[in-house]
Design a protein that fits this description.
The chain has one domain. The protein has a five-stranded antiparallel beta sheet with strand order 1-2-3-4-5, with helices on one face. About 20% of the residues lie in helices and about 25% in strands. The protein is α+β, with helices and mostly antiparallel strands.
């Protein structure tokens, strides 16, 4: 059962967005995302489309998003608009860094992948925890990054 105190993950995801910007990856900051199913904390960082990535696998991507999910950690999403109805399709690349790695580590892995210096497997990655379960360590780590504004 989930306790009443849950840390706000925006500060942590904002710290990752700031680290990405410091390394030259412009982005739209942290945006909360609603997912179907049981409530869980999910935030997305939209990477600026004017950034040129070297990874051949991303050549046809319409957009790139970096998502933090409290159950799976970080994943990069390659977004494609497909078909005459302009449906959206995603390819997920799990970063495999755990739930709350240092922001600089997340930025480093993303830069390596975009520069085609690192290969990531496709897929959302394993579920590391259930959002409905209490996790004092996770809450403590997230609380060390207070949200701005």
């Amino acid at each position: 059962m989930r306790s009443e105190h849950r840390a706000d993950p925006r500060g942590y995801v904002q710290a990752v967005a700031a680290q990405l910007a410091e390394t030259g990856l412009g982005n739209g900051g942290a945006v909360a995302v609603e997912r179907p199913g049981p409530p869980r904390r999910v935030l997305v960082i939209r990477l600026d489309s004017d950034f040129h990535w070297e990874a051949a696998s991303l050549a046809d991507a319409d957009a790139l998003r970096l998502e933090w999910d409290e159950e799976r950690g970080w994943a990069l999403h390659e977004v494609h608009t497909v078909g005459h109805l302009h449906s959206t399709a995603y390819t997920y690349y799990a970063l495999g860094l755990g739930l709350v790695p240092e922001p600089a580590e997340v930025a480093h892995v993303v830069r390596q992948f975009l520069a085609d210096e690192l290969i990531l497997g496709t897929g959302q990655g394993p579920r590391l925890r259930r959002s409905a379960d209490d996790d004092a360590d996770l809450e403590r780590l997230l609380a060390t990054y207070p949200p701005a504004g």
